[in-house]
Amino acid sequence: MNTFNDTLSRVLYIDVQNKKFWVVVRKELFEKYIGGAGVAIKLLQEECPQGINPLSPENPIIFAVGPLVGAFPLASKTVAMFKSPLTGDLGESHAGGRSAVAIRLAGYGAIVIKNASDMPIYIAIHGNSVFFRDATTLWGMGSSLTAARVMRERETGTGYRSIMRIGRSGENMVSYASVTVETYRHFGRLGLGAVFGSKKLKGIIISGKQTLEVTNKKAYKTLYDQIYKEAVNSKVMQKYHDIGTPINIMNLNNLEALPTRNLQQTTFEYADKISGESIAENYLGKRIACAHCPTACVHLANLREQYSDSKYFYKTTYVGYDFELLYALGTMLGIEKPKDIFILCEKVERYCMDAMSTGVILAWATEMFEKKLISETETEGIAPKFNETEAYLIMIKKIVDGTNDFYRALAKGVVYASEIYGGKDFALANNKNEMPGYHTGPAAHLGFLIGARHSHLCNAGYSLDQTLLMNQDVSPETVIDKLIEEEGFRQILSSIVVCFFARGIYNLELVSKLLAVMNINFSAEDLKRIGKEIHFEKYKFKFREGFSFDKLTIPERLYETKEPTGRINKAYMMKALEYAKKVIIPSGKTN
Predict the structure, then answer these.
(1) In whole angstroms, what is the distance from residue 100 CA to residue 509 CA?
(2) What angle do the packed helices 338-351 and 355-370 form, to 10 degrees?
(3) How far is it, in rounded angstroms, from Cα 586 to Cα 583?
(4) Mean pLDDT rounded to a whole number for the chain
(5) Same-domain status, 47 and 139
(6) β 201-207/121-126 pair status
(7) What value does the mean pLDDT take over residues 250-278?
(8) Could you tell me if residue 18 is inside a domain?
(9) d(Cα 463, Cα 443) in Å, to the nearest integer?
(10) In angstroms, rounded to a whole number, what is the distance separating the alpha carbons of residues 19 and 88?
(11) How confident is the model at residue 589 (pLDDT cuts 50, 70, 90)?
């Protein structure tokens, strides 16, 4: 029998319309689904009425953390769930920073935000107290950084708290608006920022000083030291610290798998200039870490800009960068200079937009303009061209402001825009979620298509391409089975909740031991079963909200552009999706 203390199983419900809050102890949820993603999907099923508009007050925001958060290294993520305004079904995003630890120390395992405010507010959660603050003066500010500074100076809890906030893209309900956490971490994908905006919710501050209990302090210390040593001594974790994910720029370029200029190419002639190695040598300003993480994988570049006619007047801004940003705002747009990429990153950061979606959408619009499928009538006089940063900066602002029908269409995603203006064959998205930066073979794209949140983090199909498909002939059915198996495993990681970078450390046998010192008893086999169940609970929600394998489309561009395995063809992809349709079914069970 598992015993979950009341701190973890306490769910804080917040009604922003009536400015009320209450706490319910939900031991039955945490005892069955552990925490994080497992608990969040069940709360979403409970709180989200079927078929509602994602931007309606009825769409809840769920935050959930897990039993290892605050207790072990790299257990520092918060899971957010909601109905996505981008895809129309499951919205799931993870963020690090201090968010997860702050929620745990405030005394909660999950937070449910309901309804919509009639005026701009931010919520301040300080332990058992919840305050609804007037955010009218913060609404509409040009930079979300200013709003964050005001909230930070107004509230207590320095050193313990987490600050989440949206920018103008969220206020204007751009479908891929993000929520920024502690400046350099994000709930980035699937439009959580737009859901915040629909509720007139500018931000959330969370702080607390609760303590966590362990049942066997000696075993706890031994296990803690084991994980810490693996994290700081592992070559994989060292890679994340030294260069970070930008190391993938050269790796993928050498494989001829790096999406470039809207995937018209898979190599970038300027890859060496914007590589992780080159940027670390020439621009890296510092590294920072999420709470309770020894890896420090967050890399910040120094962006030095002249702000006066005098050559001696400069300002220096720290800009976060990783592979996804260098891909979406770099290679996809043909940007050859790191400084120009950083300027685009900083603009996207100020507005709080998903950088991946933004880059893919701008790349599509550029190709549309080149092919004369749109003109300056749609772009309002802008002539987008690959490697022209200034045009993209103007277009980003126009998307956020929604200055005409074309930019309002771009604000709803590349699939929506292509349905109106054409160019579907090169509108790169998976179930309406814009494509991640891997053209490594069929497993990557199948992983994006069938993943519960259509993300490169769902099941790492790109890794399967490189370890298996490049070397041997593998059936479509085997690929799908392996993707589903990996996704089931990752449900456990996102329920305890740990960073996916640590997936090589946190195997199921170790997770079982770690949970035991928290007085939670699951065997490795139990965890494997629970992971599968959580995965299919997500699919039950997706099917309920209209998801269908029959609606999935594969842009022709994927078949046209060379990839390393040479195995992407229609017959292979269709056979794989037909098999996936048979084994992932609405009942939440496997055949």
Answers:
(1) 24
(2) 120
(3) 10
(4) 94
(5) yes
(6) parallel
(7) 98
(8) yes
(9) 8
(10) 28
(11) very low
Buried b / exposed e over 402-440, threshold 16 CB at 10 Å, is beeebbbbbbbbbbbbbeebebbebbbbbbbbbbbbbbb
Q: Is the pLDDT of residue 125 over 70?
A: yes
Residue 372 pLDDT > 90: yes
Task: State both tokens at 450.
Answer: 């069938």
- In angstroms, the CA 23 to CA 130 distance is 11
Question: Do 430 and 449 contact (CB within 8 A), yes or no?
Answer: yes
Contact by Cβ (8 Å): 174, 400: yes
pLDDT given for residue 5 in this prediction: 54
pLDDT at 112 over 70: yes
What is the span of the domain harbouring residue 253?
234-430
Output the six-digit token pair for 354: 């998903």
Q: What are phi and psi of 179, to 5 degrees?
A: -120, 125
How far apart (Å, rounded) are the C-alpha atoms in residues 46 and 374? 44
The answer to whether 299 touches 235, Cβ cutoff 8 Å, is no
Give the separation between CA 228 and CA 62, rounded to whole angstroms: 30
Q: What is the pTM of this model?
A: 0.96
DSSP state letters, 245-285: GGGHHHHHHHHT---BTTTTBS--TTTTTSSHHHHHHHTEE
- Based on the fold, state whether residues 308 and 191 are members of the same structural domain: no
Token match 């079927």: residue?
50
pLDDT of residue 6: 64
Q: Report yes or no: 418 and 364 within 8 Å, Cβ to Cβ.
A: yes
The residue to which tokens 């919710």 are assigned: 201
- Token readout for 393 is 């900066």
- What does the DSSP 8-state code read for residue 459? T
Which helix (H) or strand (E) segment is 286 a member of? strand 284-288
Q: Is the pLDDT of residue 192 over 50?
A: yes
Cα 376 from chain centroid (whole Å): 33
Smallest CA-to-CA distance from 108 within 230, 184, 12 is with 12
- Asked if 439 and 488 sit in the same domain, the reply is yes
CA distance 276 to 99: 27
Amino acid (1-letter code) at residue 232: V
> Any idea what the CATH number is for the domain that residue 426 is in?
1.10.569.10
Could you tell me if 264 and 129 lie in one domain? no
Span between the terminal Cα atoms of the chain, in Å: 30
Q: How far apart are CA 550 and CA 553, in angstroms?
A: 8
Tokens of 337: 């200079």
| Residue 60, amino acid | P
Cis, bond preceding 236 (omega within 30 deg of 0): no
Do 97 and 201 form a contact (C-beta atoms < 8 A)?
Answer: no
Could you please report the per-residue DSSP string of 164-204? EE--HHHHTT-TTB-EEETTTEEE-SS-HHHHHHHTTEEEE
Q: Are residues 238 and 382 in the same domain?
A: yes
pLDDT of residue 585: 75
The residue type at 276? G
- Specify the number of domains making up the chain: 3
Q: What's at 521, amino acid-wise?
A: N
Which amino acid is residue 309, in one-letter code? D
